[in-house]
Amino acid sequence: MNPVNYLYLAALLFTIGASGVLIRRNAIVVFMCVELMLNACNLTLVAFSRMHGNLDGQIIAFFTMVVAAAEVVIGLAIIVSLFRSRHSASVDDASLMKL
Amino acid sequence: MSATAVHSLWTMAGEVTSAAPGDRFTAPTIEYAQLAPVLIVIGAAVLGILVEAFVPRRARYTTQVFLTVVAIAAAFAAVVGLAADGYATKNAQIAAMGAVAVDGPALFLQGTILLVSMVSVFTFAERRLDPASHGNRVDSFAAQAGSVPGSDGEKAAVKAGFTTTEVFPLALFSVAGMLVFPAANDLLTLFIALEVFSLPLYLLCAVARRKRLMSQEAAVKYFLLGAFSSAFLLFGIALLYGYAGTVSYAGIGDVVDGSVQQIDPALAGTMGNDALLLIGAAMILMGLLFKVGAVPFHMWTPDVYQGAPTPVTGFMAAATKVAAFGALLRLLYVVLPGLTWDLRPVMWGVAIVTMLGGAIVAITQTDIKRLLAYSSIAHAGFILAGVIAASPEGISSVLFYLAVYSFVTVGAFAVVTLVRDAGGEATHLSKWAGLGRRSPLTAAVFAVFLLSFAGIPLTSGFSGKFAVFKAAADGGASGLVVVGVISSAIAAFFYIRVIVLMFFSEPKADGPTVAVPSPLTMTTIAVGVAVTLVLGLAPQYFLDLASQAGVFVR
To answer: Within an 8 Å CB–CB cutoff, is residue B423 touching chain A?
Structure first.
């Protein structure tokens, strides 16, 4: 199968993730959409890696996974602490500061 | 390219690497001496984590402050040592198998970041501002960041005299990332450094002692938007990798210039694809412009600056900007010089809306921290004008401006921590009315910082702005200079308005008091004032230093 198709798929996933970040209101779901974007990046890297016949892209994909894991740790800590003090994880409710 | 051709390339590459495992592996060479500043800071941060685990709670604060200050001082000494060995000029080189550049701009910015972090850490360690609770001196950070605000758990933690000493190792990790960020010489290092300095900052935003709900809200906003922007950066990296087949700055730069000697047949298909290059470059720029807080990627700035604990805001406002502009400069001058003409209209647009947007929206602000946040957006626009100049003077003027701006910012936020009422810091502007009558020294120092932000002659802000605008005008961006001067005039209006408010209006009966800080915060403010005056009155030595440092290694 032509590897270019994977690039289209990755672009599609990235767009879905980005739209999700903009549209969804629950902080956890927003965060999951960011993870989807990171995975789309991984797919792009791996597809290009195969097209070019060098391994850089696959190595970067490993780094991305580690970064995504670290981001989950930090992100869930912050979102859970917000949820515990407000009993809501909606990004619309968090609006003490405006303008 | 057909699928079979791709497949044969792939298996061929596989055969080469699998032909003689072991023989073909050569260990990478790492130049530890040239990387010493980063390694010292990371080592100290790891030690700081161990301190949290093993040192008794009573002794942690002292140990952490000592460790942090010593580490930053040692790293700064290492930077000065490298510069003295000529790594900033004739010996500039690329270390760690092409991952990190050791050259003039990198060392200059690393030195600036370390000094700024040092004075920021002093404000982190300040323990005389908040009234003592249950006989314990407390700093600006929550007793226990995990406890729910207003809960019994929080009260118990406060009563027990806990403090979040984890902020010191977190700050060190962040500093380490910032040191690598302007020196990163391939896109992977750029991305990792970005995450290493951002992730601790997200946490630091969330741990304020007062106004904890606002602090947590700021952290969530910063985290979600920061992760969103770094995903864009990563997708840009993936596209540029697809375009050039490599992530090293020099390698991509060659492909962009069209100066590649022999084209790998596997890459011929993507190298001619300008869509990959342009979209990839735009996405990476988006990620970096988010970090510097340029319009239209600035929406997080006011909320995060307002909600974060003020010492953290000062640190973040100053050091992040230095690191991110360093990375932006290197990207534009080393990787994408071939795209200067394509990117110019975009960068012009961003710089113009950043300068005007920051200055105009700042006029309507009523909170001093938000006001400083919008002022920082306007300043990002001024610095962008220097970045766009695309000349050696452009680089050195940006380096100089960053050094100037960062010290003034840390100083200004340190003053904000002093003005307090019963609810903690009194950040609403109406409370600052008549501050000059009640405590003339504090108000005078803040006025000096504001005048420097406004770019009044004889302050460092003027020298910086002059250098940046001169470079921009020489680089053919006179239009930007006109817009810059206009928005400086708009910005001067609200800076002066705060000064008028402080000195020429009656103090209110229930106004805030100015806390007397320990020598720590005093040092921070004194350094800010000293830099403002010295670089305002005699900037030449530092301008020369910046222009000597202003050459990127490739």
So the answer is: no
B133: DSSP letter:
B
Does B1 score more than 50 pLDDT? Answer: no
Pick from A45, A58, A83, A15: which is nearest to B240 by CA?
A45
Q: Tens of pLDDT along B222-257? A: 999 999 999 999 999 999 999 999 999 999 999 988
pLDDT at B55 over 90: yes
The residue of chain B with its CA nearest to that of A10 is B235
Here the ipTM equals 0.97
- Kindly report which listed range (A55-69, B140-154, B448-462) carries the lowest average pLDDT score: B140-154
pLDDT of residue A1: 73
**Could you identify the residue written with the tokens 């919008």?**
B374
Alpha-carbon gap, residue B362 to B373, rounded angstroms = 8
**CA B199 from centroid of its chain's CA atoms:** 13
Asked if B422 contacts B496 with a C-beta cutoff of 8 angstroms, the reply is: no
B238 → closest Cβ in A48, A55, A85: A48
* Residue B453 confidence (pLDDT): 96
Name the DSSP class of B186. Answer: B
From chain A residues 62-81, the ones with a CB under 8 A of any chain B CB are 63-64, 67, 70-71, 74-75, 77-79, 81
pLDDT at B397 over 80: yes
DSSP assignment of B347-413 equals HHHHHHHHHHHHHHHHHT--BHHHHHHHHHHHHHHHHHHHHHT-SHHHHHHHHHHHHHHHHHHHHHH
Q: Taking residues A34-54, report their average pLDDT.
A: 95
Please give the sequence-ordered ranges of beta strands (E in DSSP) within B418-554, or none if there are none: 419-421, 424-425, 513-514
Q: What is the pTM of this model?
A: 0.94
Spatial distance between the Cα atoms of B552 and B542, rounded to a whole number of angstroms: 18
Please enumerate in sequence order all residues whose Cβ is within 8 A of that of B141, keeping only pairs 6 or more positions apart, or say none. B124, B163, B164, B167, B207, B208, B209, B309
Neighbouring C-beta atoms of residue A12, cutoff 10 Å: 11
Are B266 and A52 within 8 A, CB to CB? Answer: yes
Question: Which domains, and CATH codes, for chain A?
Answer: 4-86 (1.10.287.3510)
Cα distance between residue B36 and residue B222, in whole Å: 31
**pLDDT of B14 above 50:** no
**Residue B83 is which amino acid?**
A
Residue B24, chain A, CB below 8 Å: the answer is: no
Partner residue facing B227 (CB), from A2, A60, A75 = A75
Residues B326 and B396 sit within 8 Å (Cβ to Cβ): no
The amino acid that residue B320 corresponds to is T
By CB atoms closer than 10 A (0-12, 13-18, 19+), residue A27 is buried
Q: Is residue B397 a contact partner of residue B470, using CB atoms and an 8 Å limit?
A: yes
Note the pLDDT of residue B536: 93
